TrEMBL record:
Entry protein name: Class I SAM-dependent methyltransferase
InterPro entries on file: MnmM_MeTrfase, SAM-dependent_MTases_sf
Gene3D superfamilies according to UniProt: Vaccinia Virus protein VP39
Keyword Methyltransferase belongs to the record: yes
Pfam families xrefs: rRNA_methylase
Any GO BP annotation: methylation
Sorted UniProt keywords: Methyltransferase, Transferase
Organism: Sporosarcina koreensis
Keyword Methyltransferase: yes
A single MF term (Gene Ontology): methyltransferase activity
Length: 199
């Protein structure tokens, strides 16, 4: 057992996903970035599983391919917006991960995730998600455009019907310099179309 109970956001996100994803399943890394989550998911699904990893930057997919090394055969690297996930994934999924913001160490840090495409992707993935499984979303809001995405995302998840999903927010309150926080969405009953509730 780890000495740390309250993990930082990224380790806690992985902990949630590792408790629900099974070997042989299909999962989605909606923001491949430098490949850390993709590699983690490829290890979870095993030789018979499949990871679909999305990014709109070729440099991100190249970095991810290099990180995967011998596990590349478990992963489909897709140069496209995660909003188009339904064009590539046609089966139920065991989980999905988002790591919002920009590509670390990229030349152009103005290329960021956007609220409209992020919410569209989550909508579609919730329809594909198996009952009892989780989507994790690591939210960074310290960069230009981050606050807009954060606010839109929070409004969206609060509108999701409680009979369909449970939504939780996890964060460490004493961290400095705009630390990320985590949104976890658990699907609690089968549905194909997301229902939103007006306040």
């Amino acid at each position: 057992m780890s000495d740390i109970l309250l993990h930082r956001v990224l380790p806690f996100s992985k902990r949630l996903i590792s408790e629900t994803v099974l070997p042989g399943e299909t999962v989605v890394d909606a923001t491949a970035g430098n490949g850390n989550d993709t590699l983690f998911l490829a290890g979870l699904v095993g030789e018979s599983g499949r990871v679909f990893a999305f990014d709109i930057q070729q440099a991100a997919l190249e970095a991810t391919a290099n990180r995967l090394d011998k596990l590349n055969d478990r992963v489909a690297l897709i140069l496209d917006s995660h909003a188009n996930v339904d064009k590539y994934v046609t089966r139920q999924i065991g989980g999905a991960m988002f790591n919002l913001g920009y590509l670390p160490y990229a030349e152009d840090l103005s290329i960021i995730t956007k609220p409209d495409s992020t919410i569209e992707a989550i909508d579609k993935l919730l329809g594909m998600l198996k009952k009892g499984r989780i989507i994790t979303i690591s939210v960074y809001d310290g960069h230009e455009g981050g606050a807009k995405e954060r606010d839109a995302l929070l409004a969206y998840v609060k509108s999701l019907h409680q009979a369909d999903v449970h939504v939780a927010r996890y964060e460490l309150l004493n961290q400095r310099k705009n630390p990320p926080f985590l949104i976890a969405i658990e699907k609690v009953r089968e549905f194909e179309a997301v229902v939103r509730v007006e306040e």
